[in-house]
């Protein structure tokens, strides 16, 4: 867990997510569902859903999160959590 201020969590952006938001991380209000996070990000960064998030993996406190529609409304990000948005990576 991170040292996020009270009633906040930290979100980390990697690769194309960091490029799109033009920042490596930020603090957001907690609690928030994963669906709420998607909505918040789309409001702050129009187009990020389609251009970046649809191909990304998400972690909460280093555990990968299932982002299927039925889980989006029930997965809650809590105070002090650390969320990472991880775009696809290629190796060669």
What's the arrangement of secondary structure elements?
Elements: E1 8-13, H1 16-21, E2 25-29, E3 32-33, H2 34-44, H3 48-51, E4 57-60, E5 63-65, H4 69-72, E6 76-77, E7 82-86
Parallel strand pairs: 1-7
Antiparallel strand pairs: 1-2, 3-6, 4-5, 4-7
Characterize the structure shown.
By secondary structure, this protein is an alpha+beta fold. It contains four helices and seven strands, in the order βαββααββαββ. The longest helix has 11 residues. The model has no long low-confidence stretch (mean pLDDT 90).
Largest sheet: 5 strands, mixed
Number of helices: 4
Structural class by secondary-structure content: alpha+beta
**Strand and helix order:** EHEEHHEEHEE
Based on CA inertia axes, which overall geometry fits? globular
Mean of all residue-level pLDDT scores:
90
Q: What would a concise description of this structure say?
A:
With 92 residues, this protein is α+β, with helices and mostly antiparallel strands. Helix content is 27%, strand content 29%. The protein contains four helices and seven strands, in the order E-H-E-E-H-H-E-E-H-E-E.
